Amino acid sequence: QVVESGGAVVQPEGSLRLSCTLSGITLDGSAMHWVRQAPGKGLEWVSLITSDGAATFYSGSVKGRFTISRDDSSNSLFLQMDHLITEDTAFYYCARDLGYPTEPKPDFWGQGTLVIVSS
Amino acid sequence: DIQMTQSPSSLSASIGDRVTITCRSSQTVYTYLNWYQQRPGKAPKLLIYAASSLQSGVPSRFSGSGSGTDFTLTISSLQREDFATYYCQQTSNTPLTFGGGTKVEIK
Prior knowledge:
- The complex is a heterodimer of chains A (119) and B (107).
- Chain A is 0% helix and 50% strand.
- Chain A has 119 residues and is mostly beta strands.
- Chain A is globular and about 40 Å long.
- In chain B, strand 4 and strand 5 form a beta hairpin.
């Protein structure tokens, strides 16, 4: 299973670090995504890290503020979020992708962790 | 960025109905197109990848078709557990963008 953690209430311009831990399935060899969903809204892709960690990609709305990273030894994925704004309020999901880039298919998703940015 | 447009944004259907949802991209995504189902309060679930490949464990009443800029998700005979919101996502170019979603409701 995939379990996200680290969600909290944080003030604007604050920072937060989300974690995603895989159990029973391996992070090794998998690309990983972060996807978010504001309450009552649609899905928004946030970030991707390749299976070897050599490349990272971001949506325009978070580029320069968020950093994705991974630690295969602990089967964990991270999202460092800095300079948070109210528009970052959302459930954050991580997803494993064994197929990226040739046949992307995020097949295992966590249940999400809620980030609320509010003063 | 590639824009993904789904239609309709919502629909009402009955058990047993055939349901079709369309997704259009602002430029070609070849067959780099995934479909997801999301039930209220739950994580998205991958249904179809590479435009037409059925994800393991997904019922065969779900099918996907299309290439280039126009894609379709079809549910051949709607079941109660299919009432949910469906999203397409292009995986051709980063940022990997989602469509706005189609909510399937009970008539």
